Amino acid sequence: MKPRFGWRGDALISVCKAKWSLCLEETWDAISCAVGAWDCFLLGGKCCFQSTREGRTLLFTDGRSRTSAGVWTGKTGVAVQQEMGSCSSAEGIPSGKGPYAVGCTDLMADHTIKGSFLRLYYPCWRDGAHEDLLWIPRKEYYYGLADFLKINRRIAAWLFGRLFGSVTCPANWNVPFRTGEKYPLIIFSHGLGAFRTLYSAICIELTSQGFVVAAVEHRDESASATYYFKDKENSDAQQQNSTTITSPFLESLEKWIYYRRLKPLEHEFPLRHQQVQQRADECIEALNLITDINSGKQVKNSLPLEFDWTTLKDCIDLCKVAIMGHSFGGATVVQSLSKDTRFRCGVALDSWMFPLGDEVYSKVIQPLFFINSERFQWAGNIMKIKKLDCPVIQRKMITLLGTVHQSFPDFTFLTGSFIGRLFQLKGSIDPCISMDICNKASLAFLQKHLGLDRDFNQWDPLIDGKGEHLIPGTNVILPPSESEGAQKQSEPVVNSSN
């Protein structure tokens, strides 16, 4: 008996079967193969892909390693990788262009939910031999992305594992810190639904230019996923407190926090406002942690990673600290600046201003740089940004033409033009070009306001929106009455509580 799916359903099934048949005959191009495989999976068909082990050692960031597996072979598998590829994805996440080799490690100080969890990018001694570092280190992050995107977890784990499971970061994992200099520090805050590894391209480039970058993983339920360790009682307490803790033991204590969606009829602002407050506190706590490390205090890492934190003593210039973030992380930049004047300046990438309360604007006394995409901003958001305009403190805003909101995270480098445009992960501009402009403009602004003795001032015109693919201010048309009102905004007042 013929199923009653309606003519649209019957037609869809026929099209899916036709696509898959053509894919098996290897007569379709790369995109059709990828779509055919996905259609087959959704229809419950059995895929004939073969899983292989390449013999490459891939490193988890909790101290474990494995051989890469589950990579599609044959032309169909190549097709998927090529479509995820193009110029940027063929190269993967771009390496840093600066003179410093980049190392990175993870730090979880205080294993409880109240502790700090961050990825630290730092200048290191050059070492040609290092293990490949997985970009997305754990399958639980796939589950978190699925929750954020409203996709079935099993489907998402399959899809993300196929597409991104073997993507690695161009950084030296857990290698010795490069001593002998004092480095400026950047605290980086990720966007809604992201986590600490998804802005590797930006963090690696800034580190290659001589910064130490601490990418915080927020535990306010705005990340796709994160985790901490529960306390273990009685019989296992001795092992928990020992200096060497095995990964199986840690896994038994893991407590994962996944993205929290709004409940039915729940108002969004109270949740987001509470989250941005916690995010700012977590950025401040990360700064406190690195301040302790710089002073020589012993730090206990709850992750089983051997890294000599004492080598960072007196190597961080705590007079040259900035904060940077994307989207929700951009709002976190503003909130953090209002709470702690140790942050000398901030860079907000395509900031989402909704979570901020009205009280925050007059408390920000530091220079602030907004780098916006062309396709994300709207009048209400821009007007909130313009509330921070000040005649005596530099507040700059530029717009990067040809970009979308997701032009800042790493996904823009890992998708081909078709999938990238379909899911709005990349704009019309080459992501390598847009990221280069963004990084150079950020470096010029940071040099100006951190007092760096570098050559980043060669890119000063970018701060004013002068250059190819840039405009000063915004491309968003603002109502005349609101524009006039923004010009009357009073200048920030120094708050002694900061």
What does this structure look like?
With 498 residues, the chain is an alpha/beta fold. The protein has a domain at 177-213 and 284-478: Rossmann fold (3-Layer(aba) Sandwich). The chain is 36% helix and 19% strand. The protein has 16 helices and 16 strands. The protein has helices at residues 6-24, 30-42, 74-83, 87-91, 139-149, 153-164, 200-208, 237-241, 247-253, 268-295, 328-339, 379-386, 417-422, 431-450, 460-463, 480-487, and strands at 51-59, 65-72, 101-109, 116-124, 132-134, 168-169, 172-173, 183-189, 212-216, 225-229, 254-258, 316-326, 345-349, 368-373, 395-400, 470-472. Strands 7-3-4-9-8-12-13-14-15-16 form a 10-stranded mixed beta sheet, sandwiched between helices. Strand 12 (316-326), helix 11 and strand 13 form a beta-alpha-beta unit. Helix 1 (6-24) crosses helix 2. The longest helix has 28 residues, at 268-295. It is globular and about 60 Å long.
Give a summary of the structure in a few sentences.
The protein is of the alpha/beta class. It has 16 helices and 16 strands.
